[in-house]
Amino acid sequence: MAPTSTIRHATPPEGLGAPREISYLRVSVTDRCNLRCAYCMPEDQVFFDRSDLLTFEEIVATARVLVEHGVRKIRLTGGEPLVRRDLSKLVAMLKRLPGPPQVAMTTNAMLLGRQAGALRDAGLDRLNVSLDTLDPERFERMARRPGLPEALAGIDAALTAGFGRTKINTVVMGGVNDDEIGDLLDFGAERGIESRFIEFMPLTSNQYGIDAERVPLAEIRRRVEEHVGGLVARPRGSGPAETYSRRDTGGKVGIIAAISLPFCETCNRIRLTATGVLRSCLFEGGEVVIRDLVRSGKGIEPGLVDALDYLRRVKPPVHDGVGHVQMNQVGG
Ligand code: SAM
Ligand code: SF4
Question: By alpha-carbon position, which residue is closest to atom 8 of ligand 2?
Fold first, then answer.
């Protein structure tokens, strides 16, 4: 008998909802990382066994079915996607799917200096870079590893390679880096990069648990406005960010406020973890373990279509505000 997929829930739903449109797949290619950001994972993180990770062929086989059923955009994330060897090969394989889908990546930029050109040549469309501080010592405290020079060199390499519409994502932590909002805005503006500020999302499994001082949307906006002399709200797109235009330069600024202002109603994404679990939500929302099915290589389409259909219907109307799975494992 062909392997089937397994449905798992922390709290089973009372019933299935109306099917939601799913057009965006986030793929965690590894849970490993060359940093240990305290808001993302514990210091003594034990990583999955490499043999448990989906191969590139298995990721592409899964993505192919999902693309044939409505996915138009794929984002590679992790963990740190660039610590997975030959990642540009995966990009090229995904860009050969029908469509082709838009393929983007979220990275800490540490390895972009070496890989930006190959990623561009492989067809990677867009990059989001995470950068929380411009201070090397603070970087080391927040990421529990040194690396600011490498990250900055990586951003330059990305721009040189032609990733013009790169965004910089900053998790704003009260009392940790919230005094750098202005400097990070200037850093982005000088390079023509959109700055986006992310509210800290509480997880039970990181250094802060749920007790970190979260800087809410209104306060982030106030501090941005203080620096740029006012913001004009732009129409809400399907993405997670509230977006604004700066009154001074017209440049774009984003704030991702999953806690103050959940965007669940318009969320069009599902996630594939590195070990082959499809999830409907970053927080709790049900998941379908598809690894054995995909690994069997046989007749995977009906099982994956069932999984997609199930996840479309169990996507929560609004998340419960606390994540129980680490960001590096679920592909934040
Ligand atoms: N390693 C890559 C990076 O850092 O860009 C990709 C994976 S990382 C998990 C993806 C994004 O999740 C990063 O922008 C990171 O800052 C964000 N993130 C991780 N933990 C978070 C948390 N507790 N709250 C908000 N954002 C978080
Ligand atoms: Fe690594 Fe990204 Fe998590 Fe930082 S946020 S530890 S860079 S996966």
Answer: 79
pLDDT, position 313: 87
Res. 239: pLDDT tops 60: yes
Lowest mean pLDDT among 18-27, 199-208, 234-243, 287-296: 199-208
Candidate from 80, 129, 138, 200 with most ligand 2 atoms within 8 A of CB, to mutate: 80
The domain 6-225+264-330 belongs to what CATH superfamily? Aldolase class I (3.20.20.70)
Strand partners, 76: 27, 105
So where are the chain's domains?
6-225+264-330
Tokens standing for residue 82: 């660039």
- Residue whose CA lies nearest to ligand 2 atom number 3: 40
* 3-state SS assignment for residue 181: helix
Quick check: CB of 108 below 6 Å from ligand 2? Answer: yes
Residue 209, pLDDT score = 59
Claim: this prediction has a pTM higher than 0.90: yes
pLDDT(255) > 60: yes
